[in-house]
Design goal:
alpha/beta, Rossmann fold, 7-stranded parallel beta sheet, D-isomer_DH_CS, hydroxypyruvate reductase (NADH) activity, NAD(P)-bd_dom_sf, Glyoxylate reductase/hydroxypyruvate reductase
């Protein structure tokens, strides 16, 4: 119909990467569960293994989709003492991966060897439902799964089963199917699953930049000029 489309790329990369790291740390160190123990009176005398989780130091991190956000996540995780980065996607990116010493591997190997799996890929027919029963079955029982891409990349029923039966240690999700997630959804009953309401880009600075760019796209479109960021159809 000749409708022009403007969009706002790049501006949310850093905010989403920061949120991905926050979600990973919340899940692996059981932060929401621990905070609830303080409120409910569960915090009593010191106990050696109470509220223990898993740390990033000397770990292997697998990133599904080493695009802008995946790279920004790796850049932030590297100072935590991560021993090795693995990644998978449509193809190897040796020049980009060199910064992190990351190794391109098949999805199955990434699942088997990673202590932490972070999903930052696009949702496509190839990635829809990619993280499923087979994928979680290959992960370590001590592994933590984080998704800040799109909810449909994950088979949520399979994720629930993996978490409920101790197949993996924990999960952190900023995206779900559907959104909002119904308050009676089984995933919300699990202590080892941290779910956020799709707030990856929710910093004041990022949302302001997105709004300005959207407005500039609109104004340029109304004037019949090239948009600062136009989707070429």
């Amino acid at each position: 119909r000749g409708i022009r489309v403007g969009y706002t790329p790049d501006v949310l990369t850093d905010a989403t990467a920061e949120l991905s790291v926050a979600l990973l740390l919340s899940a692996c160190r059981r932060l929401p569960e621990a905070a609830e123990q303080v409120k409910s009176g569960g915090w009593t005398t010191w106990k050696p293994l109470w509220m223990c989780g898993y740390g990033l130091s000397d770990s292997t991190v697998g990133i599904i989709g080493l695009g802008r956000i995946g790279q920004a996540v790796a850049r932030r995780l590297k100072p935590f003492g991560v021993r090795k980065f693995l990644y998978t996607g449509s193809g190897p990116k040796p020049e980009i991966a060199a910064e992190f010493g990351a190794e391109f591997v098949p999805l199955t190997r990434l699942a088997e060897e990673s202590d932490f799996v972070v999903v930052t890929c696009a949702l496509t027919p190839a990635t829809q439902g990619m993280c499923n029963k087979d994928f979680f079955g290959r992960m370590k029982k001590t592994s933590v799964f984080v998704n800040t891409s799109r909810g449909a990349v994950v088979n949520q029923e399979d994720l629930y089963d993996a978490l409920a039966h101790g197949q993996i240690a924990a999960a952190g999700l900023d995206v779900t199917t559907p959104e909002p997630l119904p308050t009676d959804h089984p995933l919300l009953s699990l202590k080892n699953c941290v779910i956020l309401p799709h707030i990856g880009s929710a910093t004041y600075a990022t949302r302001s930049t997105m709004a300005v760019l959207a407005a500039n796209n609109l104004l340029a479109g109304l004037r019949g000029e090239p948009m600062p960021h136009e989707l070429k159809l």
